[in-house]
Amino acid sequence: MSAPGALPISDGRLALSALLILVNVLLSGLLRLGLGRSLLLAAVRMVVQLLLVGTVLEWLFRQHDPLTILLLGLVMASIAGVSAVQRTRARFAGIYANSLLSVLASSALVTGLAVGGIIRPQPWFAPQYLITLLGMVLGNTLNGISLALDRLMEGLTSRREQVEARLSLGASRWEACLEVVRDAIRVGMIPTINSMMVMGLVSLPGMMTGQILQGATPAGAVRYQIVILFMIAAATALGVVGVVLLGYLRLTSREHQLRLDRLRTNS
């Protein structure tokens, strides 16, 4: 007997699910958190964005032109690179370029290896694989880069005296900043590691749940999820290391000086 697939959700039942957000709004009102308006705005934006994405993906999945699909992937990666910087509390000249380069390089490398060497869809640019996998990789890489950038700038600022003391004693800029660089990379990778530690025990990932609802066997869905988690871990690590090293180079000079004058706090 063939798998039945996921049960359809009518427009009425979809609207009924919106009542669940009222739980958040009610708690915000009772506890005077002041989040009611933000919750409602976030809910409306989420619904509109997802409905638009659904429409775009339906069109995209009918495309057979690799250039169109790759162009959309490039746009997605560019948006992720910009969004990662928008979340930081401080910036410096070149931070957007650093973020874009790190996101593009890490996501392209990891997604390309996974699609071309592991999953191997036919054709290789099949959007239901390429775009879906790329989207999950970008979302997690974005978060890691944002956290790492924040920690790098905060660490160099809070440890300024320590770093400059080391530089004055003859240490190279790498030796003086090594602890801060390591700490920033560690912070950027921790969310992914934590997620992997409890995967399957505390939470069922979205793609695995979706595949099971569509009729895939749990064993098959698990295999896909393992590949995806390894992709996310690799892309996040590469993106975080890249953006931290580029940021470190920008906030120090070849003359082994700390250049925090290049930092500006967001207004």
Write the layout of secondary structure elements.
Elements: H1 11-17, H2 21-30, H3 36-60, H4 66-86, E1 90-92, H5 95-119, H6 127-158, H7 160-168, H8 173-198, H9 206-213, H10 218-250, E2 263-265
Antiparallel strand pairs: 1-2
Shape: globular
H/I helix tally: 10
- The fraction of residues in strands falls at under 5%
The secondary structure category is mainly alpha
Across the major sheet, the strand order is 1-2
Brief write-up:
This protein is an all-alpha fold and 267 residues long. It contains ten helices and two strands.
Q: What attributes does this structure have?
A:
single chain; 267 residues; mainly alpha; two-stranded antiparallel sheet; 10 helices; 2 strands
Polypeptide structure, described:
This protein is mainly α and 267 residues long. It folds into two domains: 60 residues, no CATH class; 201 residues, no CATH class. The protein is built from ten helices and two strands; from the N terminus they run H-H-H-H-E-H-H-H-H-H-H-E. The longest helix is centred in the last third of the chain and has 33 residues. The N and C termini lie far apart (61 Å).
